[in-house]
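CORE FACILITY INTAKE
Project code: CF-77B
Contact: R.S. (postdoc)
Sample description: multi-component assembly, two entities in total
Requested service: structural model of the whole complex
Turnaround: standard
Below are the sequence entries exactly as provided by the requester. Do not edit them.
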Amino acid sequence: MFQFILKRLGLAILVAFTVSFISFSLLFLAGDPAAALAGETASGEDIEALRHLYGFDRPMMVQYGDWLFSALRGDFGESYYFKLPVAGLIFDRLSITMTLGVCGIAFALLTAVPLGVAAAIRPNSLIDRIALFLSVAGQALPSFWFGLILVVVFSIKLGWLPPSGTATWRHFIMPTIVLGYYAMPAIMRLTRAGMLEVLSSDYIRTARAKGAPEMRVMFKHALRNAIIPVVSLAAVQMGFMLGGSIVVESIFALHGAGYLAWESIGRNDLPTVQALILIFAMFYIVFTFLADVLNAWLDPRMRSS
Amino acid sequence: MSDAMTDPLLAEIVGPTPGQLLRRRIFGHQGLLIGGTVVALLVLVAIFAPLLAPHDPYAQSLMARMKPPVFLGGTWEHPLGTDHLGRDYLSRLIYGARVSLMIGLVAAVISGLIGSVMGICAGYFGGKVDAVVTFLINVRLAMPVVLVALAVVAILGGSLTVMVSVLGLLLWDRFAVVLRASTRQVREREYVAAAKSIGASTPRILLAEILPNIVNNLIVVVTLEMAHAILLEAALSFLGLGVQPPTPSWGLMVSEGKNMMLFEPWLVMIPGTVLFVLVLGINLMGDGLRDVAAPENRS
């Protein structure tokens, strides 16, 4: 087990370094950051001075090394726009994105798992068909459009929920639904498939033969085993969802890290964008690592691979 | 075979041909039929856009701004009304099908090429090749797609070429994952061993023995990734960092209509519904193809 964790950890760190290099070099495509920073009216000397000031005249690898070592110490440089340390800016915004991510995954699990279980108990029944329809339709629903529909219905027509902002918990209801429904189909299908497989296994028949009540068979024996892969899928989906929160945050004007990313891209604020790509990637890496470890802990067969 | 089809008694003994079975499966599958019809219709609309569109999708008319659609009291002059610049909404919608389908198709082809080569090589050769490909898949999955695509489009500008290239270079992961797994299964089959034993070259084995036997899975992933690319393009255009105005993109139309959503919700509802229907159609078609191609997987 220890060896497994060590191996996965090494891999996760290697992935993190590669991602950091790619995200750094991607934004190097930008051409001349000094010219962009100086603005259109700047003279040649101004640009040259800026280039020297920010160190853009050094070789790319030196700049990457410099950026990486600062980043490892939690220093992501200074935002071009706010003239403040990027780390602090992002840290202030992360709590909203994290809240949204946790609520979103909770919503997805609370709707998808019961639906998946119900669908598996009665295959091809009405509820199975409804669940299948929801998962097929859910995958095709553009999240930005779904968000706008919710705003039209619940904020404009009915006036039940506030359309934007973060002041109260009611502001988080619609963003949670929009972010969470995206993870629902996958979780539901996996729960259903897992339950179907477990329900046809010998120990379920044994439990029933012993005369265990049906509810006890379903939840104590079956669901506990079927839920194992769902837990790790949820962790991976959580990583995806945080990266996808940029769309949801921009619709509902939640000033979280995703919103900051969107604004910073529009403002050419390279240090902030680089840091955000790295941080969102780190979330994914940490969540998949935790999912793998959890899986190996729950199911020893996983450790060999 | 023709005798078997004409003679009812003989047909019962011989049974249906594989071709008949396939046709029966295709036409007996509701999802595939519905999805295929929707996609085929929208492809036709995209191809014949100049013939179908009642107006020039770019022609502005300040005198005819924000005309409502016919079902909300408008006239047949503009069946789906006009937008804030007086452009005919139906015409923009029709031309928008071209943008969505083109981006979806080309992005799926690019990512399909990258991902298939990686997946097939990883699955067939195993060992170090597999380790490298698996690592690259992990790296790719760790990159936040929307964020990276937005940043690159912001840097390089939002032309169709840039959009297609960015999406093509980002969406190859599922191809690699699926084809790696299916190649590993096929690799151990007898016909691969037979081809090896008669001295077939590795490229020949990959192209003539492996590829035809995993092409079913490839087609399913192509449809799913097309849908994915179309949704992403719409989301990026909605965020203002995708296809640039005045190009008619459905995501952009939703974004332009957003500000007037309070009084004219149809501006948002119409392009969003079409986008939803197209993606739903593609997904139904993909799921259907999977069922038809591999009946043993039907649940």
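Facility notes:
- Chain A has a mean pLDDT of 83.
- The first helix of chain A runs from residue 2 to 26.
Invoice: internal transfer
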